[in-house]
Amino acid sequence: MIDGWKIMENNTKRTKGRWILTCFIIPTVPFAERWNINMRILHVCAQEPAFNSGGSLCVYQSHYALTKLYEDVDYAGPAISNKDIECKYKKRYYLDASISKLTKAITLLQLQFDRYYPNWKNANIPLDQYDLIYVEFTKMNYVVKDIAVSGFKGKIILRAHNVERDFYRIELENDRSLLRFMKYKLGGGRERYMTQKADRVLAITEIDGQRFIDIYQIPKEKIVVFPVGVNEAKHQKEITGELNEKIRCLITGSLWFGPNCEGVKWFIEKVWPLVKEICNLTLAGASPLEEIKKLCQKENIHLVESPKSMMPYFENTDMVLVPIFDGGGMKVKIAEAMSYGLPVVTTSHGVIGYAIENGVDGYVTDDPLAFAEAIKTYFNMNDDDRKKILENERKLYRDNYSLEAIERDVHEIIASLE
Q1: Which site among 12, 50, 252, 323 is 20 to 30 Å from 86 CA-CA?
Q2: Name one GO molecular function term (predicted).
């Protein structure tokens, strides 16, 4: 401790549930008290804070922490459908995604593909009146450009949900259209600009953080690895370890997205024949491809297309499966499963960003035989051994991926700004 400051030495070491790729000095006096006790914050989003997708859940965790820690937080983004979330913001600038054909044509001529761009330009937000602007996603480069010319003298935090350049590459591999190609070519430059202008870049995993350093030459002291966090399930099951005659398994996700589809196909073709006698499987996800629909015609597999809420499916399952081998960021569905007290079986890619230890608080393997064996092992355990797995997982969740843990991390990140 030196005169009210705490030195954090975190050279890719784990600290309170998150990774920091460097070391920096954090003041023990909260940032709001050091700089402006009535700090004004603007939260800029390309998705509304909500509970209906991985992206919206990540936005919600930022919303939760900011509005819990500070009183004067405004919002700019899509209309918020949940009134309990909406009312937490002091002022709201809603950006309508619907635009005329003429406006869309003009926008495309400006090489802007973001549907909120025209209405952002018309919102006339007094950016220079804020002390901190917290931007979700690394694709709204026009927001950061406007901040730069507004007279803004505060700090910018950029929350990167993915490395968008890598995400656009995956989209292009699955759909080689001109639009996908243009997004891929332009997206990297815009992401570079945003990450270089921000005072802190919150990467969702250690791998993403290192990618920003490698491809955009971002100074490592800017990067903080800030994991996914979700609210604890309202209807928490008592941890008993008990199972019925068959184990109910759940796979969730966007069932049109290439990596999710490939993972489902791998599981049903290579793993399912080995566990179908002890399992009932539910696939619940948005817009499943025809190939996925055909695969789900097998016995004891139930497909739910585009459910309005995932809550009833998490509440009525015994285990969550996350078979995935590609894609960016951190798999929010794993944090969701943990929040419901459900064991997870996933791959080495799916576990990125999570401190799950195989056989201790979950299961991790890329081999189809071992994946099936993990399900069988959990099924054949006695109640006490299953209960131990679930208790370990709940502690891991509460310490690292709960909203309370995220609030703590946001407080420390803002306090680190000089």
Answers
A1: 252
A2: transferase activity
